[in-house]
Design a protein that fits this description.
Layout: H1 19-28, H2 42-52, E1 59-62, E2 69-71, H3 72-82, H4 89-99, H5 106-111, E3 120-122, H6 125-129, H7 144-159, E4 182-184
Parallel strand pairs: 3-4
Antiparallel strand pairs: 1-2
Length: 187
């Protein structure tokens, strides 16, 4: 795999004194789901982009209702925050690409008062490649891949598409899948 030479990221760089300060900064600005995040360094974001062979400004799609552009860089930042390794990132890109299709009805799924959450099902060789667990406790904390990929989708909804509780997200009770909702199919 070739390196993307001189990756220029458009995202603003924030500095913090230590790991705790990073957590407080992200939490106070509403950039988390309430859980701690992995600080998205320029190196870790570039590593995700390199793994997927995408340049930072590659347009993944435009959210159909509010016409918000979604770039590869913004996906990578949130994937890192969720704990994704570079090898997880292409799955995140594929999922968000599908969600950008008008037929997916993303706005309806994210604006419902009923508390629905978007479920991502992994199948095929990628499940094994990522060591996703398709057997016991598939909706629990059974493996890293499904937990971080599902969480990346949630952070992308929050930070890239501004789907926040009380704003676009009008869920009255919520759903545990609004933290991470990804599983591997047992084929």
């Amino acid at each position: 795999m070739g390196r993307i030479a001189n990756v220029q990221l458009a995202s603003k760089v924030h500095k913090a004194a230590d790991f705790g300060a990073v957590q407080e900064m992200f939490h106070s600005r509403g950039w988390t789901d309430g859980l701690p995040i992995v600080p998205p360094t320029e190196e870790s974001v570039a590593a995700c982009l390199e793994w997927a062979m995408l340049v930072p400004d590659h347009l993944i799609g435009i959210e159909p209702v509010r016409e918000r552009p979604v770039t590869a860089e913004k996906l990578a930042v949130n994937a890192v925050m969720a704990g994704c390794l570079p090898m997880h990132f292409p799955v995140v890109v594929t999922a968000v690409t599908a969600m950008m299709n008008q037929e997916f009805l993303l706005h309806g799924a994210t604006a419902s008062t009923g508390g629905c959450a978007i479920l991502l099902v992994l199948n095929g060789p990628v499940s094994k490649e990522l060591s996703a667990n398709p057997t016991f406790n598939v909706l629990g904390a059974s493996d890293r891949a499904t937990m971080v990929i599902g969480r990346a989708l949630r952070l992308i909804l929050i930070n890239v598409l501004d789907v926040r509780p009380g704003g676009i997200d009008r869920s009255t009770i919520g759903h545990p899948g609004k933290i991470s909702y990804c599983l591997a199919e047992d084929e």
